Amino acid sequence: MMMRLNMRLFLMLLLSGVFLVIAGTDAQAEPTPAEQRLALSKELHRIKPVKPQIDRAIDRMAAQIPDPAEQKSFAASIRRALNYKGIEETSMKAMADIFTLEELQAMVAYYSKPEAISAAEKMPEYQKALGEEMTKMLDRAMMELRTGRAAD
Question: Largest Cα–Cα distance of the chain, in whole Å?
């Protein structure tokens, strides 16, 4: 009788311990908000990596050099000097630190859409068109400031 009671008590304690371990494991498995933000930031960088954005910026800078050979040399030198992986890691951490969970969720949802991907691919073309017009306007304004009259 005593043996049966001890065995029941032992089994109850054992089951209680198992339930506590399972409950504790579930609580530990839930990522913290910071971990969730970092995971979303990594997902956003998978969808919209930083390297192509940097390369486009380098190409725009190189395009300002008149000699095509010097353009290529300049772009290659800059690319060799950059640590793309380090920039990507810094970018992911900064996003996770700066943006809220909701903001990151919205960005991932937006940039996952085919329309957003298409729009992002067209952005350099848009920026070029806008930049050319702004340059013309600024040139006219500078001419007007220098001469005191509007450029023709």
Answer: 111
pTM, two decimals, is: 0.64
Nearest to 40, CA basis, from 107, 120, 87? 107
Q: Encoding tokens for residue 91?
A: 């970018």
Distance CA 72, CA 76 (A): 6
User: CB–CB of 144/150 below 8 Å?
Assistant: yes
Q: Residue 107: CB partners within 8 Å, gap ≥ 6?
A: 40, 44, 99
Q: What is the pLDDT of residues 105-115, one digit of tens each?
A: 999 999 999 99
Give 38's contacts (C-beta < 8 A, 6+ positions apart).
92, 93, 96
pLDDT one-digit tens code per residue, 76-93: 999 999 999 999 999 999
